[in-house]
Amino acid sequence: MGTQATIKKMDMHAVMQKLSEKRxxxxxxxxxxxxxFREIQSLYKPYKIILEYxxxxxxxxxxxxxxxxxxxxxxxxxxxxxxxxxxxxxFSATVEDEQFYLKGETENKNxxxxxxxxxxxLEKAAKHGxxxxxxAIFLTNLSxxxxxxxxxxxxxxxxxxxxxNEWPESAKHIRTRGPxxxxxxxxxxxxxxxxxxxxxxxxxxxxxxxxxxxxSV
Length: 217
Hints:
This protein is an alpha+beta fold and 217 residues long.
């Protein structure tokens, strides 16, 4: 309990930095989720840390569904839900004797929409005061997300997540999910996570670099 009592707030950027020193690349999102879970457990030794924690436990409203990827608790007044996204372009490499084959996205609308919804869900849950702070993390080797300013659901550097966000009529397949609303404004800022430097990389050179965006709620 001595370690837990000294924890005032988790530093997720510090956690990501420590994780990048051990794991520069992941096979898929669940691999990233488990690695981050273990890193938080190692650094902070929380009283409780749970994968796929029911959102209803944080947000009792009828619209709250599904789960958050990781839930970290130090005491009843100091807990942190974390949502994760890991989107990749096609890329393969051997890293520390482990072979990685990353699949490429067919299109990016789902990634952008899902991240916006992650942040919105955390924002809605925060109204009930059941956690200290929530985090939405998006890790990718796709430069498209951070470099291109789009008309809706944009994730470029400095993009603002605010107000009501809705897909145009032309995006019918994803428009059916409905609008995403925010009460507050959240700004996207990208940080370098890692760069794969092994000699046997297959894929475009730009895909060697991984960046992440982290939004606190």
